[in-house]
Specification:
binds phenylalanine, globular, 77% helix, mainly alpha, two-stranded antiparallel sheet
Length: 447
């Protein structure tokens, strides 16, 4: 059964919808706070441009050349008799792990949307108590909103690429951009706006560590959605008229712009009230609500706009994380879409419950060393599996597959021979350098 694919604008918005997510608005600002501001941002941006963009194009092109789900795509484009399709297995697995904790966070966002309208916490202490109370003691609230997140995502994906994924992105992405611009213009009027910009862009390399480099590289992969075959899966549904190099650039630019805007907005609000850049997953959920409280009635509106933007960003990414597994089951095993979707959702939901519980008091057995399950999944997927998945993609296109097929396709899309060669060089050398360098920086403690 052949499904109908994306329109041109539908593809760009869906790919951007995947890239722009909790990674941009929730994670990027707090890891920037945690790892010291400007220097971290610089490494992040460099990775995005030199490693991320070439990989984005590699994934999209691989998908569009085979027009199949990820495992079959690797199979089709592998040299005769080689089993590189196994690469795709790791990617589907990674996506599955991300889905489990990603939806837990979307659940928190739904709850905070409700808090924004009813009772914002008045002080940072109250805000901490509210978030920690939910996180560590209130299982039922989290379970309720987590289930809601899973249901919404499943309900979109099961309708298919066109009627589900494209349609929702056409609405939510413009809405998200509008909401964020509203916050940005508001933040521009705050005195602390300049301080926020300085924090993000003034690089202090003394605060940089091997771990910071690894996290920055991982964050770039996570934020662009590369390394787990999402863009490959979307690429399989691309319209023939879509020019992939332009699409990759547009998606990369949108992703970067939104991360930077979200960072500046959040730091402007925090600094305006003399708060420190909190250094934890709680930043968007603790410091920010308390900051919004100070704005009175307008604060409720600001908070609601913020959490709505976060919810939209999260949903459009979560559906993209689910789609590769669904496409795989649907196309490779001929499972119908409803079964494939709800089956995957159910398993992800159950594993997600454990992830959710691992944050609660009394569930310390769901921890290993310093990290609980939530933190392990987050760290392992972003810092290890996604870069590894990206590395495999780079090796595959850079060294293994028939590159002339890629050239023909991209040449039709306007890429010259020399630009193509540059791209292959980036895949062959920059990507391994970035990934291995980041891991070495951490493991060997080079910085
Ligand atoms: N890019 C998304 C974000 O920034 C997360 C994501 C990761 C989506 C991997 C798909 C694949 O939130």
């Amino acid at each position: 059964m052949k499904e109908r694919g994306f329109t041109r604008i539908g593809f760009i918005l869906a790919a951007a919808g995947s890239a722009v997510g909790l990674g941009n608005i929730w994670k990027f600002p707090y890891v920037t706070g945690e790892y010291g501001g400007g220097a971290f941002v610089l490494i992040y941006l460099a990775t995005l441009a030199l490693v991320g963009l070439p990989l984005l194009l590699a994934e999209m092109t691989t998908g569009s050349l085979s027009r199949k789900e990820p495992v079959s795509a690797y199979e089709d484009l592998s040299p005769e008799g080689k089993r590189y399709w196994r690469f795709a297995g790791l990617k589907l697995f990674t996506g599955f792990l991300i889905l489990t904790f990603y939806t837990v966070v979307i659940g928190w966002i739904f709850y905070y949307l409700f808090i924004s309208l009813t009772h914002l916490p008045a002080t940072p202490e109250e805000a901490t108590a509210l978030f920690m109370g939910m996180l560590q003691e209130d299982a039922s609230t989290q379970i309720f909103f987590h289930a809601m997140a899973m249901l919404i995502i499943g309900a979109i994906v099961y309708r298919g690429v066109k009627a589900g994924i494209e349609r929702i992105n056409l609405v939510l992405m413009p809405a998200l951009i509008g909401l964020l611009l509203f916050l940005f213009f508001y933040a521009m009027g705050l005195e602390a706006f300049g301080e926020a910009v300085a924090f993000m862009f003034a690089a202090d390399f003394s605060r940089l560590s091997g771990e910071a480099v690894m996290v920055a590289v991982g964050q770039a992969f996570f934020s662009l959605s590369i390394g787990m075959a999402v863009l490959m899966t979307y690429g399989a549904f691309v319209d023939k008229k879509t020019r992939l190099p332009g699409a990759a650039l547009t998606v990369g630019a949108m992703d970067t712009a939104i991360a930077l805007i979200a960072g500046v907005v959040i730091f402007a609000f925090l600094f305006q009230l003399g708060m420190e850049p909190a250094q934890s997953v709680g930043m968007a959920f603790i410091s920010l609500p308390a900051a919004f409280y100070q704005f009175g009635a307008a604060g409720h509106l600001l908070a609601a706009v913020f959490f709505l933007a976060l919810a939209f960003a999260g949903i459009t990414s979560a559906i993209s994380i689910l789609e590769p597994s669904v496409a795989h089951l649907n196309q490779r095993y001929r499972m119908n879409r409803a079964k494939a979707t709800w089956g995957t959702v159910l398993v992800a939901y159950l594993l997600g419950l454990l992830v959710l519980l691992s944050n609660l008091k009394g569930f310390e057995w769901l921890s290993l060393g310093e990290r609980n399950l939530f933190s392990w999944f987050d760290f392992l997927t972003a810092a290890v599996f996604l870069p590894l998945g990206g590395l495999l993609m780079a090796i595959f296109v850079g060294f293994i597959t028939d590159r002339e097929r890629y050239f023909h396709q991209l040449h039709e899309h306007g890429l010259s021979r020399s630009a193509f060669n540059l791209w292959i060089a980036a895949l062959r050398y920059m990507v391994p350098l970035g990934v291995v360098g980041a891991i070495a920086a951490k493991v060997l403690g080079l910085i």
